[in-house]
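Narrative of accomplishments. A recurring question from our advisory board has been how the design workflow behaves on a single, concrete structure rather than in aggregate. To address it, we present the structure tokens for one chain from the evaluation set, followed by the sequence designed for it. No filtering or post-editing was applied between the two.
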């Protein structure tokens, strides 16, 4: 059978085309593999080049607390001192470096009431001891140690390797302090410090008032810390709940602010608040021309002095006894035409007035603390419940005899301008 020339030519062309395509596809595949391998090599080379690490102070502190116990147990004290100097030189004085400096000085029998101030002497192979830095900071570091050393042991913390590292570290510090407490010839100050570091709690800290520490810098610092006060400011919100016939005016929300101060456990503040919203039901009152009007008008004004005393404290919480005296005013009628340009009358409101004597309980929670070497700032939420003794008279109108209950939520801030910045008294 004879094949047509055109068909033969087409077959030859198709065979050549397929062969060319196979070669082209093979070339593309091999090129892709080579390029991928080349990119992978470059990535590995780049990663190998990235050998530098920027250590943050958090990294340094975490590594330090992990390394210190083993360095001490293996008697590598030169390395331990070098680690402390490195940490303080690069990141300043942490509580844990301060505490360890004190314990090592007691161990080496060269303790005195002075310590290296890394802020004043940041460099130098022989750091100078600073008595003022010790006195200005010893109480605050003791209080911080008490807070840090009491890390709760519960399942949630067991999965946090940083929390576990610090928990193990403070266990080591307590053990170290306990073993050093048997050292003969300790001074009264050294005995107190070792006892406190082994048993950090309120009752141990209060031993600073003992006569055996008379004349010591640590007792003087503790006395200064006890006396110090600070400024208190807060935004106030709450609800005014009347009782008795005062219920005729209805329950009302209020807003205000508080400004004052705190001294140890005692607080005294000026409180100004305003109640608002119309009464839930109408009431009658006699106005300036002896006519009776029936309205739902209501505005309350509270201006007075509130006092409080903390009867119990636990870390970030506080339980308070509250009391106060104030002027309490109720605007129960306002002339709707009072703002008219043609109305010049001064008798366009009706007020009921009373002295307010109040007492109750409060619970305060400190949710945020900022500390530095000069001041303490603590943010708090304060829940208050008080009974208010008032004596309003609405002659000729709706009876309003009765008292009131107030429930308040305060969001505020306490600030102390003092070097000993951590108040736990």
């Amino acid at each position: 059978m004879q094949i047509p020339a055109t068909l033969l030519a087409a077959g030859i062309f198709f065979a050549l085309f397929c062969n060319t395509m196979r070669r082209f596809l093979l070339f593309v595949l091999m090129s892709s593999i080579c390029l991928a391998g080349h990119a992978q090599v470059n990535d590995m080379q780049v990663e190998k080049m990235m050998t530098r690490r920027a250590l943050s102070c958090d990294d340094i502190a975490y590594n330090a607390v992990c390394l210190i116990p083993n360095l001490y147990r293996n008697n590598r004290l030169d390395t331990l001192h070098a680690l402390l100097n490195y940490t303080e030189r690069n990141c300043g004085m942490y509580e844990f470096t301060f505490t360890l400096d004190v314990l090592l000085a007691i161990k080496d029998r060269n303790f005195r009431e002075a310590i290296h101030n890394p802020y004043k002497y940041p460099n130098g192979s022989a750091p100078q001891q600073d008595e003022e830095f010790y006195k200005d900071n010893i109480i605050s570091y003791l209080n911080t140690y008490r807070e840090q050393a009491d890390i709760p042991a519960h399942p949630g913390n067991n999965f946090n390797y940083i929390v576990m590292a610090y928990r193990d570290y403070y266990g080591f510090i307590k053990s170290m302090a306990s073993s050093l407490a048997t050292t003969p010839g300790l001074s009264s100050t050294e005995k107190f410090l070792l006892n406190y570091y082994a048993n950090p709690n309120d009752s141990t800290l209060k031993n600073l008032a003992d006569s055996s520490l008379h004349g010591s810098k640590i007792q003087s610092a503790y006395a200064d810390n006890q006396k110090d006060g600070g400024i208190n400011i807060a935004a106030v919100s709450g609800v005014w709940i009347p009782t008795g016939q005062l219920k005729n005016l209805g329950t009302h929300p209020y807003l205000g602010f508080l400004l004052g101060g705190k001294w140890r456990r005692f607080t005294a503040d000026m409180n100004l608040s305003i109640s608002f919203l119309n009464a839930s039901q109408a009431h009658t009152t006699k106005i300036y021309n002896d006519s009776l009007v029936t309205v739902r008008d209501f505005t309350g004004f509270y201006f007075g002095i509130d006092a409080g005393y903390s009867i119990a404290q636990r870390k970030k919480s506080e339980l308070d006894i509250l009391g106060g005296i104030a002027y309490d005013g109720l605007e129960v009628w306002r002339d709707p035409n009072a703002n008219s340009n043609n109305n010049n009358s001064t008798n366009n409101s009706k007020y009921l007035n009373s002295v307010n004597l109040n007492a109750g309980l409060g619970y305060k929670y400190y949710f945020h603390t900022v500390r530095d070497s000069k001041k303490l700032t603590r943010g708090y939420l304060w829940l208050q419940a008080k009974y208010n003794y008032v004596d309003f008279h609405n002659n000729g109108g709706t009876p309003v005899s009765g008292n009131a209950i107030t429930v308040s939520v305060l969001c505020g801030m306490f600030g102390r301008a003092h070097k000993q910045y951590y108040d736990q008294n």
